[in-house]
TrEMBL record:
Gene3D superfamilies linked to this entry: Divalent-metal-dependent TIM barrel enzymes
Keywords in alphabetical order: Carbohydrate metabolism, Isomerase
Pfam family name, one: AP_endonuc_2
Protein name: Sugar phosphate isomerase/epimerase family protein
Residue ranges of every copy of the Xylose isomerase-like TIM barrel domain listed in the record: 23-253
GO molecular function: isomerase activity
């Protein structure tokens, strides 16, 4: 499994071209980039620009994955630029992105259903709890829209990989994949988001494993709150996630481990288990997983009391200027350690360190 980064949470990415970002991550020893949009490869979807990006990635031996935007029709009004790309036809825009990505050899495309409403608080920040349209209606509309994309996806041998985003459960994603077809829809497994839906990272990884084609990896702290728990992002290995368990669950798929870091926020999100509306809105909830998350919160807070990890107050403070890059480097180091240990155990022989990650170690020590 290669270790890459997500473009939206890479410090300075907005000031770089796609080729500039590829060169920068290569310097740091990463092995790929998960561009959140195909438009990051070429804003005009210019064939020559797309080929140049693919040539650069090939020369640097980097993997490229990209995204096509949200596929929940009720989210479309929040994405006017994509609708404009299709001349007012959002589906046409999706077709253009799928075709452009395939032209430069990118066949694994990120998507999700909703946006997190950062201007709102509590349950209202999640489109799962919108009051103008039921969540079941949003899921039905998403399946219907994905089925309209299926022919062009099949024609290009491409998958749309739906993220375990903050608003959707792993159970629901599995049902979507199975209804639309795993030949065109897969899953981007986000290790920290499943916690927000009250799920164990390992259990969720096992549920989605047959359909995982991409990842967003990051760790998380869990701390107690008045109405349940709060999730706060942490570098891999510095939170509560059982990384050997997660990596073992998805190992057969061999996805790129795309570290999604932080920029201006550690993305604290509520898990209000004690809210009746939240509880009734999660019919698939597993009691054992809920209990596990509370145990993990107890353990994290005990470690914080011992001074081993930052407590909730410290994590609520501002993100320092060097923290986003350090988040990525520390996460890569932890992933490399876990992968090495896993392979060593499976073959009972040491694993030589990949050249790209050896370069990462070298950069860290400069």
């Amino acid at each position: 499994m290669r270790i890459g980064v997500d473009s939206t949470k890479f410090p300075g990415a907005r000031d770089l071209t796609a080729i500039g970002l590829l060169e920068r991550v290569d310097e740091l020893g990463f092995e790929g980039v998960y561009f959140r949009s195909v438009l990051e490869l070429s804003p005009a979807l210019d064939a020559a620009e797309l080929r140049d990006v693919q040539d650069c990635a090939r020369d640097l031996d980097l993997r490229i994955e990209a995204g096509i935007g949200k596929v929940n029709p009720f989210t479309v009004p929040e994405l006017p630029d994509l609708r404009a790309l299709g001349g007012g036809d959002y589906r046409r825009a999706m077709h253009l992105l799928i075709e452009a990505a395939a032209e430069c050899g990118v066949h694994e495309l990120w998507s999700a259903l909703c946006n997190y409403q950062f201007s709102l608080r509590g349950l209202d920040a999640f489109d799962r709890f919108r009051t103008d349209v039921q969540w079941s209606e949003q899921l039905t509309a998403t399946v219907r829209f994905l089925k309209t994309l299926a022919p062009v996806l099949r024609a290009h041998g491409t998958h749309v990989n739906l993220e375990t985003h903050e608003e959707i459960t792993s159970f629901e994603l599995v049902r979507i994949v199975e209804e639309v077809g795993q030949d065109v829809v897969g899953i981007t497994f986000d290790t920290a988001n499943v916690l927000v839906r009250g799920e164990s990272a390992v259990a969720a990884a096992r549920r989605v494993a047959p359909y995982v084609r991409a990842t967003h990896v990051r760790d998380a702290a869990l701390v107690h709150a008045e109405d349940g728990l709060t999730r706060i992002l942490r570098p891999v290995g510095e939170g509560v996630i059982d990384w050997p368990g997660v990596l073992e669950a998805i190992a057969a798929a061999e996805p790129m481990l795309s570290i999604e870091g932080i920029i201006s926020s550690r993305a604290a999100m509520p898990i209000p288990f004690f809210d009746e509306r939240w509880e009734s809105g999660h019919p698939d909830q597993v009691a054992d997983e809920r209990e596990e998350l509370f145990r993990l919160a107890d353990d994290y807070e005990e470690r914080a009391r011992q001074g081993l990890v930052p407590d909730a107050a410290a994590l609520s403070g501002p993100v320092s200027s060097g923290e986003p890059l350090e988040f990525l480097l520390r996460s890569a180091r932890a992933l490399r350690s876990h992968l090495t240990e896993t392979v060593t155990q499976s073959v009972t022989a040491p694993l030589s360190e990949p050249a790209g990650l050896a370069a990462l170690s070298s950069k860290e020590n400069e």
